Amino acid sequence: MQLSHRKMAGRQASTVVKSKRSTLLVFTIFLLFLSLLFYIFTSFSSSSTLPLTIEVSRNPSVEYSFVSSLEKFLTASKSKSSSPVPDDTVRTDATEQALKKLDDLISQREENRFYGDENSFYSPVRVYVYNMPSKFTYDLLWLFRNTYRETSNLTSNGSPVHRLIEQHSVDYWLWADLIAPESQRLLKSVVRVHKQEEADFFYIPFFTTISYFLLETQQCKALYREALKWVTDQPAWKLSEGKDHILPVHHPWSFKTVRKFMKNAIWLLPDMDSTGNWYKPGQVYLEKDLILPYVPNLDLCDYKCLSDSKRTTLLYFRGRLKRNAGGKIRAKLGAELSSAEGVIIEEGTAGEVGKAAAQIGMRKSIFCLNPAGDTPSSARLFDAIVSGCIPVIISDELELPFEGILDYRKIALFVSSSDSVQPGWLLTYLRSISPTQIRKMQVNLAKYSRHFLYSHPALPLGPEDLVWRMIAGKLVNVKLHVRRNQRVVKGSRSICTCDCRRPNSTSSVPFS
């Protein structure tokens, strides 16, 4: 009996031990499971934020500031050797014999390229940069550099002139990259060629915005006429009537007095402005021209900034509320939104104080209001993008840069003007956007910001790179119109194009 009790006690003790072991095993497995979940979560989290680290961090060896980059560029230009780069820019009016020679060379080059290399259509865009007299190029850059500190110089609407030039300095960034030594260039989408017959396109390096703002009116108009004559005297211009030439006219006021005579060229623009306030009908259209982003006013909100940002404001706007033309909607939006909870609407001020206030405001906000101004576009859109603030675009006539490559629906909200001014509509809509969708758009903003940061040297997937990728898409159509125009019988009934005009509707070029 006693033995039986001992056996039973032993069995019970064994069962208790086994039970404890089972419990410990289950607990251990549970801890391992929790650890695995934590690892998966942290891995996912780190993988989702890693692109922000890569995409948003600035490259310390690259210059992003226009003023700093220009200083280095001009200093380097003074120290260059006197031996010129091989160049065959024509200095005088082209003769018929010169036109025929260039035409034959182009034809031979294209035939060799087409039949000699099956990958020819996938090669980089070939650009010939005109070697224009310094009064159109370096002299204007020096003028900007030497007067940059005179910030009291304002436009009629109160904007600092030199800051406006910086916003529209796309002509500098493109030219500085094109003429840099090939060993220092990083872009593979474009190469500079030094023979005109090798070129797909011709770049005109005239600083139209600097000349408009920093020269006296009559001096500026005279320089415009000189630039016009100089370019249109080139044999390549005469062969194509300018269809394969690229002209940066990024400020809508610049080059205005003579640009109708260069309407065939590919214009680099801030927007199309279909209202007709800045461009005449038929001068600009998407098939011919290219929209380029403004240079952002604000500093990039990098990975640390994005991580640290506490975005407590729902909707933010800082700027002038009273504008002309399509910008009249600003006043209506200001009246509708100014007293709403979670919304900051404030009148903008120019200069460093205004810049600092806008930067703080955008970095604290989830959404940034981007209504039309005097023109459909403004630098505010790109300020919002680099600040990680989701743009709310209220500009019915707006055209966007690189839209053939970038999908703006991933980073911005588009609202019609009529909806935006309905009482309560806009805020109800913004509050309906889920946190998940907001986070997704913020991640995309971080990824997209590199596409709007001009730099020297120009970086792959930066705005300069996307310019040439978009230009490459125009090449076949440009060649079609150039060749067709060269063989069509003058005066014949031909298919009408986008820029048709009645005969003799364009007067001769004013070369006075």
Automatic annotation (TrEMBL):
<keyword id="KW-0808">Transferase</keyword>
<dbReference type="InterPro" id="IPR040911">
    <property type="entry name" value="Exostosin_GT47"/>
</dbReference>
<keyword id="KW-0333">Golgi apparatus</keyword>
<keyword id="KW-1133">Transmembrane helix</keyword>
<feature type="domain" description="Exostosin GT47">
    <location>
        <begin position="124"/>
        <end position="429"/>
    </location>
</feature>
<protein>
    <recommendedName>
        <fullName>Exostosin GT47 domain-containing protein</fullName>
    </recommendedName>
</protein>
<dbReference type="GO" id="GO:0000139">
    <property type="term" value="C:Golgi membrane"/>
</dbReference>
<keyword id="KW-0472">Membrane</keyword>
<keyword id="KW-0735">Signal-anchor</keyword>
<feature type="transmembrane region" description="Helical">
    <location>
        <begin position="21"/>
        <end position="41"/>
    </location>
</feature>
<dbReference type="GO" id="GO:0016757">
    <property type="term" value="F:glycosyltransferase activity"/>
</dbReference>
<comment type="similarity">
    <text>Belongs to the glycosyltransferase 47 family.</text>
</comment>
<keyword id="KW-0812">Transmembrane</keyword>
<dbReference type="Pfam" id="PF03016">
    <property type="entry name" value="Exostosin_GT47"/>
</dbReference>
<keyword id="KW-0328">Glycosyltransferase</keyword>
<dbReference type="InterPro" id="IPR004263">
    <property type="entry name" value="Exostosin"/>
</dbReference>
